[in-house]
Give the backbone structure.
Amino acid sequence: MIPRMRGRKTVSHSLLGVFALSFLTALGGTAPVQAQTTPSVAFETELPRTLVFIAEEGEGQVATGDFTEFFRSAGFPLVDPALAHTAAQRDLVQRALEGDEGAATELGRDFGAQLLVIGRADWGARPDPVQQAAMTATSEVSVRALRLDRGEVIATAQADGRRLEATEQAARTAAIRDATGEILQGTSFVGQLMNDWAEREWDDTSYWRPDPGSIPAEVNEAQTRTASGLAILRADVQPSEQGTTRGLGVVERGDRSSDVFNPVRLEGVVVGSAETVEVDGQEAMLEPLDPDEAVRLGVDPETARRFWAELSLPMSQDTVRVVAADGSGSTVETVAAPRVNERWAVVIGVSDYQDPEIPDLDYAAVDAEAIYDFLTSEAAGSFDPDNILLLTNENATGSAMREALFVFLQQAAWDDLVMIYFAGHGAPDPSRPDNLYLLPYDADLSSMAATGFPMWDVKTALRRQIAAERVIVIADACHSAGAQEGEGWGMDGDNPIAGSFSELFTPSRRLTLTAADTNEFSFEDARWDGHGVFTHYLLQGLRGEADLNRDGIVTFTEIFDYVNQRVSEATGGQQNPQRAGLGDIPMAVVLDEVGSIRR
């Protein structure tokens, strides 16, 4: 078995036709010069992910198309504007178009853009007074570019157009195209935004919204000792000895009239001046926070403490109120949901790739189908088939994956559980190795930025579109069996995709499990029952082998410990699964020989 490695090659970005000339002209601030040549330009800085959103009455979307084609030709990675048009909230869009920069910033960030070009294309048409059979159209296109880490406008432009054509549609299109061409060719609009992008360093911290329920989300306002903040690290229903239910989040919730109580353990962090913490009216234990843990959580150990409580939760109650109080009587509170409400999943597996330059895999799609089958079983709490989306091979296109993460999983509420599983290739862009991609079925190695599924988009969906506090991401990417060495898959000994998954979340009950470490690759072979070695042991563990304390429950931590040990042993230490995230989440219950929950 030869690991699939990713080679690196350097290419320059070419600006096509008149767009190339206008881009160079804009950078130089001089008037455009018409020419038939197509110059080649190598950019010294990585170009921003760009979303073009120009409101235009009618179905043509001429201005959006012209701007999008310009940026595409210039090598900018583009955010799919169709997705933004269908999923963005209407009031946010309207406010952004009316000049609300805060709304525009939120709009762009919600879809993973670093640069938002937003504006309007207004037009009107009437019969020409001289040539009665023709139509005269006039247009006005106004745009502004926002840099979305800072929420600032960095370039503006406005231009008019006028055309006489045989039909209204032709006249409108030509007039708008004249105006957009003037902005792109005859103004410094592009030069302004590119100069700003090159001169000011990107600020990741201000761009990304903390994960729902994470430490930063809950305690950002409580770092000054004058206020308190609460964040939940763990809220799990424990095994019950009462016979009718295990009471786990992975098991369907009980009858509201039931007199069954489930034991719950709740753990969290309080920051600030709080002297007491109550959980469901019961005083919690307060303990010093270990300095190393405080660093991982991103809080000051001098002002942060851990709290925990154990209580009995009746089946008629789904949430627990947590209240922190200081000496003056000031309080802050949050709500925890020990039981999972609904379960959602997106399961993706790609074995067969459209691009012949991408080596096919033997078992990635089979792995995904097996995970789907498990999630719809009683052991996993029987995910509702309407709440789980399976995408394999030709159905796992880039657009389908984006729709799944940005739209389908938007339905999950804060007290739901979301699971995302991916099996297939992952790779850096050969021309820009720092840009990492999962490879959908229709990925094209020669055009990775346009056809790959960026890890940036995975992060955006998790941070901006998915509200659930409990999220588990499992990635069996960078498979390795049977690969042939060749350009784009050279033996460079690095697997950056695995490391990128570990950086998806801020400290929260959002967890990742990856098949291999950053300098390793994931193996697949017939000896593991026709699965990748990672998914083979993942399934065995979920079916009960990972229940290390024999309590009938398989948790995320138990799965990791089991899979890490078994995969390492099976591959002679060449592949070592990794985890990231805080806390724990129950994932399965153990069934007996007849398919009932083992008690």
